[in-house]
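Q: Convert this sequence to structure tokens.
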Amino acid sequence: MSDEILERLAIREVVENWVLWRDAGDWERFRTVWADDGHMMATWFQGSGEEFVRVSREGFERGVNILHSLGASSIEVAKSRGIAQTKMAILQRATVHDVLCDVVCVGRFYDFFEKRNGKWVLVLRQPIYEKDRLDPVDPAAKLSLDQSVLSRFPEGYRHLGYLQTQNGFKVKIDMPGLRGPAVQALYERGRSWLAGGKL
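A:
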């Protein structure tokens, strides 16, 4: 197996460990996927990897129910840097207007990696939000959404943003989606990172 394939496999292992350790509440191991200066961007949180571990743990202990699943990935490596794009789904369960609901948001994790001290670590995770939906857990339940609130959010995470706002989160409203200038700027940032540029 070539060195490049082995590096890609090592990066993919970090991507998978992120999901498994975070969703299982394995906080000490979850902390190890991040660079010391790692940064997480999400609808409900933007900050350091260390802070993300802390707030994820606090939410987990309060019963916040956010899970993730992974699909195919494409990984580019240039010396000690990498960009990984991985198909993913965010699955969150919470109450919306007194109705227990599930929201599913599909997209990609767009990850900036660097090999430090012989180990690949996450320097930046920026999800790309492509499309979502929201459903009552009980299909017989009646749910009516406030269209003025729903329309505040981009199409890719409109229902996820609605549910999170209803549950007290402050949701960022300019995250990249499937198309548009925000995702194009992210791709350019990724190309610059692989070429040795700064974040």
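Residues 82 and 113 are 5 Å apart (CA to CA).
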